[in-house]
Amino acid sequence: MSPDEMTNLKTVISTIASVTATVMLVRSVANDLIPKEFRSFVFDNFHELFCRFSSNFTILIHEFQGPSPNLVFEAVEVYLGTIVNSSTKSIRIGKTENDKGLVITMEKDEEIIDVFEDVKVKWRMECRRIESGSQNEEIRDMIAALCSELRCYELSFHKRHKQKVLNSYLPYIMERSKSAKEESRAIKLHSNFRNWGPDGMKLEHPMTLDTLAIDEEVKAALVDDLASFVKGKEYYSRIGKAWKRGYLLYGPPGTGKSSLIAAMANHLNYDVYDLDLTEVRSNSSLRSLLLGMSGRSILVIEDIDCSINIENREKVEEKENKHNRVTLSGILNFLDGIWSCCGEERIIVVTTNHIDKLDAALLRPGRMDMHIHMSYCRLSAFKQLVFNYLGIRQHELFDQIGQLLEEVEVTPAEVAGELLRSKNPSISLRGLLEFLENKIAERERLKAETELREQNEVAEEEPKDATKPESKFDSSEDLTHIVDH
Ligand SMILES: Nc1ncnc2c1ncn2[C@@H]1O[C@H](COP(=O)(O)OP(=O)(O)OP(=O)(O)O)[C@@H](O)[C@H]1O
Ligand SMILES: [Mg+2]
């Protein structure tokens, strides 16, 4: 910089300093000498004049709308927490019992610049102390009991964007904040043991759809199905159906049915309502339990074949009604749409170890929309488990173990149990190999024993049969055989 430029810069700086000092002096003298009413009269008129010529438009969003919290303010607060950027110098951080992680909010007098469809807007947060006479007295006292200052978001942008901000940007913020709030909310587990309880317990199950070991194709189909369900609000209302979806998980114990429910809850961030049907006294209490559930939730009925005898529908209804117990038709009725009148976004998951025992009425499409077979552990599920437990994707023993898994029925739970024994992959996998070989040997031993026993039984029965008089009318099967021919 040349000496001349240096001198000019110094002059500019000293001029700014003296103007600032003068303004501050005038302001403090004016504050002392000029009455408050007159000052605000001058300020208001000056502000109005300024606004008339300014190209800016400002929207104020206050914390309260009368005595009630302002929902737009709440939405803006959540939204701004998600777009903290380089224009923000300080933020406020907090966390409550109901939050999954840290909650970021804007600090007072801070500014955030946001860009929405090429429109640049500026957000600023202001706090004002609650002053007497500023509100209806009753409302003021009510608010003052909650907080000592009133917060307000100021949104400013070029006035030519007014329509876009009002018609698109603000609705977009309402939508985004809703999903951000849902994502950050801790998942709760409710049980009907005490009528769901007031708040439920925090569900902190670590299982996710990534760590769940099931067939890749099944997993992909499930993820797609869940995604279209979640986005299906308009579709369900268009076709006039309750916004719900049923999943039936079936398979032997230890194949991951309960784990899949936890993974679904984590994936969707839905609360889980665990319904123990043996605790439900009647269809009407079932109905009130279901009406007491919140939306965006998963209703779980585990081991449905054990909790209610639904094998023989007619017989059970007759018998259960006598004791005013919950019946299959009670369950089917709500699956068919008791929910259609209230609430939305509900998933029902029913699990069973014996799909063959279930009544066909429960399996009809529209009730259980997707049937997922949780089966024994095969190579792809095994590889996922090894990655979860040992952190490796390849090992020389994989082929050998893969072959054995084709020969023996072993559940993911059993494989997981073996993999837990050592953190050293070679020790752990060799242990699993041995476990599988022992299982096959045990199976062969049992098979040989059974064959031997059957042979002995036949040998014991033979002399008895020989003494028996021959009769063609011994069994109904034989009788049918004769009549038919
Ligand atoms: N598919 C799987 N992927 C990952 N881990 C699994 C899987 N299946 C089972 N496990 C492990 O085994 C344990 C038991 O599995 P889970 O309780 O989910 O089985 P289940 O099918 O619900 O059994 P049940 O029919 O007895 O209720 C889980 O906690 C998990 O550690
Ligand atoms: Mg289970």
Short description:
The chain is of the alpha/beta class and 485 residues long. The chain has helices at residues 3-33, 36-53, 71-82, 137-146, 162-184, 216-230, 233-238, 257-268, 283-291, 304-307, 313-322, 328-335, 360-363, 379-390, 398-407, 412-419, 425-467, 476-484, and strands at residues 56-62, 64-65, 68-69, 91-94, 103-106, 111-116, 119-129, 149-158, 188-191, 201-202, 244-250, 271-274, 297-301, 346-352, 370-373.
- End-to-end Cα distance: 118 Å
Using the 3D structure, state the CATH architecture of the largest domain. 3-Layer(aba) Sandwich
Q: From the helix content, strand content and strand pairing, which structural class follows?
A: alpha/beta
Strand order of the largest sheet: 10-9-12-13-14-11-15
CATH homologous superfamily identity of the largest domain: P-loop containing nucleotide triphosphate hydrolases
Label the overall shape: elongated
Number of domains: 3
Largest sheet: 7 strands, mixed
Catalogue the ligands. Answer: adenosine-5'-triphosphate, magnesium ion
Share of helical residues: 40-55%
The protein's oligomeric status is single chain
CATH topology category name of the largest domain: Rossmann fold
**What's the CATH C level of the largest domain?**
Alpha Beta
Runs in which pLDDT lies below 50 for 5 or more consecutive residues are 310-314, 468-485
Number of helices: 18
Task: Give the tally of β-strands.
Answer: 15
- Percent strand equals 15-25%
The overall pLDDT average reads 81
Organism: Capsicum annuum (Capsicum pepper)
Catalytic activity: ATP + H2O = ADP + phosphate + H(+)
GO molecular function: ATP binding; ATP hydrolysis activity
Keywords: ATP-binding, Hydrolase, Magnesium, Nucleotide-binding
